[in-house]
UniProtKB/TrEMBL annotation:
Region entry Disordered, spans: 1-29, 473-515
Protein name, per record: ABC-type sugar transport system, periplasmic component
Coiled coil: none
UniProt keyword list: Sugar transport, Transport
Length: 515
């Protein structure tokens, strides 16, 4: 089954958590779905449910029982707030309901889903990503929620087609997250700058000044084979005018080895190979390592998840006072696009669910949990990583009144960034597909090429072609078409005109590394 990330990252994500995208031990493909599910033991099918907690603190075992799963178990206050909000559905629903919340970690949930499907004891509703929802929907396990989705017309752009496949919407967007741009203003001021960079050119200039004037690292993000690394690469690709997939009607194409994708990989590699603004050992650093370097005050700029900022505040770290969050610096196409993570809510088909409830109850629960008045009950504890998926949710505190100890500027920055996001596999084709989660998992969220370039000395052109062909192998046949392997290496001469100043080193634009 799909193993895409919802928020984050590799063996540990950019929050330091286990991630589905790199859960290779539990690798699960849709083609092997029924075969693997059929081999799961009854004991395995029930093992994940021992931690269920009803809204009243009891096991849910009576008439009207309703079970839902969430992966929001990493921050205790957030978990409790969401659980309490879910309990409120018992009063909101039109009939008797006894809500049970089961918290499952991302590194376990794929095996838990598989076992529960085989044992016909799935939750009624589960948090997942739309890549998972579409995959399960095509397998006949998850219900579409098209009618509920179409009741609203104020969706943000990417969430508006994130769950689309085969004429249905399979997952109801719950929240999105963004990769944030961090600036250590103390280091910047020591290097003679009084504001964060607004463009790629300024980013590189300021990072080099920091290196020269302070001896500290100019820029850091994940550099290893890591989901967070792949997310940064994809954001760079989107800002360069490219994408990882495209679609013409029903025909899908893989674009990971296009000239634009090659440029994005070379631009990122240039931090180490050309401009010397990345930390030593960068190729072995995951997103958690990058976060630690920044939090210790040893890096001027970082792209990472929002949790790093929250933890700085909560732990009263000095670097928090010096940190400014801003939009991702503007790329050559004039955009500030950041990678989008997030989650949706999906309802399992009744024949697979542990508790027999009417379909309308499951859809009502999804609606209830995503209403602005319900989200207000838990967004304070989930701030500001739970960002809106539609305009009406912008009116919820803390996006209006801020009751948290997180600076208003940080919340405003992330809310503004949420309007300019992209998601690999989704943005180019403007729809989802059942194979996307598997190919993301097989490539550690498309980080294999850049990690090979940075750490293995691979030829960049060959690395991006190898990664793209691995994806083509995963897509072949799944998209209802035959996708041939590529034998041609990309040529930067064919990259868009806007990228040529970086390729040639024209004017004030730094030249990228191009071996």
């Amino acid at each position: 089954m799909a193993q895409a990330d919802t928020s984050g990252e590799t063996d540990t994500d950019s929050y330091g958590r286990e991630s589905p995208a790199s859960d290779t031990d539990g690798e699960y493909s849709r083609r092997g779905f029924m075969e693997k599910a059929g081999t799961m033991s009854a004991a395995g099918a029930t093992a994940g449910l021992a931690g269920c907690i009803g809204g009243d603190g009891t096991q849910g075992t009576g008439e009207g029982d309703f079970l839902w799963w969430t992966m929001r178990g990493y921050i205790p206050e957030e978990t409790e707030a969401i659980q309490n909000a879910a309990e409120g559905f018992e009063d909101w629903a039109d009939e008797e309901v006894n809500v049970t919340t089961n918290v499952v970690t991302w590194d376990q949930v794929f095996e838990e889903w598989t076992a529960a499907i085989q044992g016909q004891n799935t939750p009624n509703v589960s948090e997942m990503a739309n890549e998972h929802a579409v995959d399960y929907g095509v397998s006949g396990v998850v219900q579409p929620n098209t009618e509920l989705f179409e009741q609203y017309d104020d969706w943000y752009e990417v969430p508006s087609y994130w769950g689309d496949y085969d004429g249905e919407v399979w997952g109801f967007p719950w929240f999105i997250e963004v990769r944030s741009f961090y600036s250590n203003m103390g280091l910047l001021e020591d290097a003679g700058h009084d504001s964060p960079p607004e463009t790629w050119e300024e980013l590189i200039e300021m990072a080099m000044d920091v290196e020269d004037e302070t001896g500290e690292t100019g820029f850091v993000s994940g550099g290893a084979q890591d989901t967070g690394t792949g997310q940064v690469v994809y954001g760079i690709t989107a800002q360069s005018g490219g994408d990882f997939f495209d679609r013409d009607g029903d025909e899908w194409s893989v674009e990971l080895d296009s000239p634009t994708s090659l440029f994005a990989h070379l631009w990122m590699a240039s931090f180490q190979e050309e401009w010397d603004i990345a930390p030593g050992g960068w190729a072995g650093m995951d997103s958690t390592d990058a976060e630690q370097l920044y939090r210790e005050g040893n890096a001027a700029f970082m792209i990472n998840s929002g949790d790093a900022a929250n933890e700085m505040i909560n732990e009263d770290e000095d670097v928090a006072d010096r940190t400014e969050l801003s939009l991702i610096p503007e790329g050559p196409m004039g955009t500030n696009t950041s990678f989008m993570g997030g989650s949706c809510l999906s309802a399992f088909e009744p024949e697979y669910a542990q508790h027999d409830v009417d379909d309308e109850i499951s859809m009502s629960f999804i609606e209830y949990m995503t209403l602005p008045e319900t989200m207000e009950e838990y967004l304070t504890e989930a701030t500001p990583n739970f960002l809106p998926v539609r305009d009406a949710q912008e009116e919820i505190p803390p996006f209006t009144d801020n009751p948290t100890n997180i600076p208003d500027e940080w919340i405003d920055s992330r809310l503004e960034q949420a309007e300019d996001v992209a998601r690999y596999g989704i943005t180019g084709p403007e729809q989802n597909a059942p194979f996307l989660g598997d190919v993301e998992g097989a490539t550690d969220a498309y980080s294999t090429a850049i990690s090979g370039i940075l750490g293995g000395g691979e030829d960049p052109r060959e690395a991006v072609v190898a990664q793209a062909n691995q994806v083509r192998e995963g897509v072949d046949g799944e998209a209802g078409q035959e996708i041939e392997q590529n034998t041609d290496l990309p040529d930067l001469d064919d990259a868009p005109d806007e990228l040529q100043p970086w390729i040639q080193g024209d004017g004030d634009t730094p030249q990228i590394w191009n071996p």
